Input
Amino acid sequence: MSPHRPPVGDLFRRFRDRLAAENADRLAAESTDRADTPTDPAPSPPGAARPTARGSGRQGGRRGGRRGGGEELRVPEAEFTSYYGRPILKAPVWKWDIAAYLFTGGLAAGSSLLAAGGQVTGRPTLRRAGRVTALTAVTASAVFLIRDLGRPARFHHMLRVAKPTSPMSVGTWILTAYGPAAGVAAIAEGAGLLPRRGLLGLARRALPPVGHAAGLLAAATAPALATYTGVLLADTAVPSWHEAYPELPIVFAGSALASGAGVGLLAAPPAEAGPARRMAVAGAALELYGAHRVETRLGLLSEPYRRGRPGRLLRAGRWLTAAGVTGALLGRRSRTVGALSGAALLGASVATRFGIFYGGVASARDPRYTVVPQRERVNARRAGADLPAD
Output
């Protein structure tokens, strides 16, 4: 240590005394400023320093302003709005055309089953109505799907692979197998318009048996066509669709049968509408059971199906289904009652499909339906593992 340098202790005491003096001067200056500041100060000119509020210093900010005289700061209640400014779950970009695709796919499947029933039981009116409606519905379904995809080539690209674990891939192959069969079966209904001689006469004789085979093939693939869309929706991350994975195929199967029965009741006279009435009963039972489960079993995730537009659509679907099947059973001898019942069943199928679609979209837009079930599952796992909850 140099003999001319003061000891370290003296240096530290001088520094402490100087710091204490500076703090005393600063506190005195702040007290003078507060005493001279009016209750309602005039606005400061631009660029001037704004006075510091009491209790807004570092200590008040850290300790909630208790010692500085400010209000106590508390963490606000959590609101499930976003994750760093972004939605917790991206809502589906699908629009009404996908809901219409769900309906037309089910209508095509139900109509093919109706046509097969008319073919097996010898009811040509049912067979013809079912085949023509099936071709029209599957064509509309392809239009809605391609409209959503944006380019027809995207549907073609899906056929380059077969992925059994992907509902989209499986659905593409189902449509590929069903569409040509339904088309050939419908074209065969026009065989009677061809001339009896020549090459067209040969086609006139060959089309009916080919159409029968194609109609049975379309009916064999119809159940998969009717239900794969339910599996497709349940395979997404949308909460109210994903949690309803056991019920959606049941709802869509019942809706397809009911819509096919509606076509038969509209087209066939009461004497030939027996298979359509039986389809109406089976479809109504499945649809009402599945829709009731969707609206009651899922707990919090059932709310989107009971509120707003989805709730109104599903309630309308239930009432139309009940009215349609009641009219089909009680109006067996009335063509007018049968037609009204068929229209009610078709309307019920539309309302049900759109209600399920919009219910899932609503659950994806509200973060509460994503966060709350996740916390419940985490707490359940903690309780099962005997761990403390959050």
